[in-house]
Each structure stands twice: as C-alpha cells, then as structure tokens.
C-alpha cells in the first residue's frame, strides 16, 4: 500500500474519529440497515468521548451515501467537525467500528483497501494513444498523445519501386515519431500519477515501438497486453481480465521480493539494529525497538505488517511531529516531546512511514513474516 493518500490526516492535529463500516446494499431493507449503522457509529463515537460536532459530520456523511451501488465498505476519518478523508474499501470490514484517538486509526486500511497496484494504461494505435489511470477503485481518463498521420500509414507490403519505398519510409518515420510522442507523454505523467505499472495495449508492433522509447526505469515497470485497443470495438472485458492478472502477479511478486530481502537482511528475531549504522542494501529491522528507530529516521523502504502479530496493537509514545515516536515515555521526552501521549504502534509507524514516502505491505496470515508482526526492509544508506 502506497501511503501518500494518508498525508492529509497527518497534516493536522486530532483527536480523530476513525470509522470502518460495511456498505453493501444487497437486501430489500437496505435503507433501514443503513440507519442502524449510522446510529451504531454515533453511539460508539459518543461513548469514546468524541465531540458532538465531529459525530454529526460523520453521521451526515454516511447519510448522504446512496442506498445502492456502494463499494463493499468505507473508511471515514474526521476531526474538528470535518470529514477529512472518505475512502472506499475493496473488502467489507468484519464489523462496524468507530474509534476516537489522538492519531487516526489507519492500520486496518492495509487489509481492507486492497493492495492492487495502480496502472497507467495507454490505448495505442498508429495515430496516438488515449491514457487512463486505474487503481483498485476507479479509472480516470488522463489525456491523449497525438502524433503525425500520413495517408497510407500502416502500408507494409514490398514497394513496387523506389518512389513507393521512399513514401513508405515517410510513413514509418512518422510512426516512429508518434511512438516517441506517446513515450514522452507517458514518461511525463508517470511520476505524478503514482502508478506502479505502465500497461500498453494495441497493435504489437505499435506498442513495442512505444516501449522501446520509454526511459529504462519505466521499461522495467511496463507490460504489454494483447486484449483491448484504442478502437471503439475493442474488447473491454478481455482487457480488464488481462490487467487484473497483471496486477495480481505484480502484487504477489512484490511481496515475495520484499520478504526475501527481509529474510536475507534480518538478524536474530527481535534483535535491535542500530539505525545510525550504514546498513547497506537489503538490510532489515525486526522487532519493536528496531522498527521504531528505522521509521523515525526515514530508513524504511518497505514496512511489513502481519495481521496476526502481537506488536501492532502495542502502545508507543508519540508527540505531534510525524517522527516523534518512541518505545518508552522517557525516550520521547529525550527527543523534546513535552507531553508524550500513547498511541497504537501500527498507527504511529504508518504516520512516520507516510511522511518518509515508504510503502507498506501486508503479510497474509500463515505466511512467515517478521517476529511480532512488525518488520522493515531498509533503504540504501550512504
């Protein structure tokens, strides 16, 4: 899970109302069930000490949701009488849950939002490409790349004479120029899009020409799919299936790679690694003290969370700054935090990881992961 979307939560002070609610509408009494859920959320927040203005903001937002066509679930985060984030979930929460705490309770998002990589998709033909951004929840058209077009483009038979040969070369040169225009536009949009993958669809020759002109780093994250295309009659269903398979494969391989780097780099279970040491590529942190140190000093490339681990729900001490997190109160005070407060370890670590641009991967139950459920693959250090 990429954490950039959480930054608005950490740019302001709490306390926070955090709500996880199932929102499917498959029954005839859906409206009645919706009202009951709203009351349950309000009751839980009031019991937890939330102010009336923030409770009202949450309930009003839930009441405005359509009775049909909803995602499986939603997560709402509110503070100061305002809903700051309203996030559709890819899976239903096991139960309605509403908490009131100094930090937003964001940890459940790792398992509920879905870890499907986002894709920048290019629908390519000989005149240019339509670009689309897809994530786990929606797709959005993000522009076009238009190239030069020559009459007779696509004519690939053996020319009858040198004049036709010259003409065909013009057509081929025009296509290569168009491929370069598409590649340039993809390279421009990719960093800002936040996409994990670039997906090229269209004629094999045309998409291959675009891929060959992408920057090397992008080519490594680019895949070509056979289904779909730019023409109106292209099969959307087949393309959706292919992209789903590509995303699933990418997510699986990303987790396997991170776990392999973690296993190679970690010490003994629970060993505390000094974060100030030049750890080198692929080194790992495991156990609460080591992971807290690594996250606080922005060393974490990938934070690993196991849902069945014991450390995630443990309390740490934090201050208002995103990097003010410590295992013990005295450590937080030594950092200059005047009034440390308790917070869940997973929420505090995710706050620091979001500020550092780290990614978070959920280790499924039953898959060997970090001891205690918290681990990290560290960045290159100099």
UniProtKB/TrEMBL annotation:
Alphabetized Pfam families for the sequence: baeRF_family2
Domain of life: Bacteria
Name under which the protein is recorded: Peptide chain release factor 1
Protein species of origin: Streptomyces sp. R33
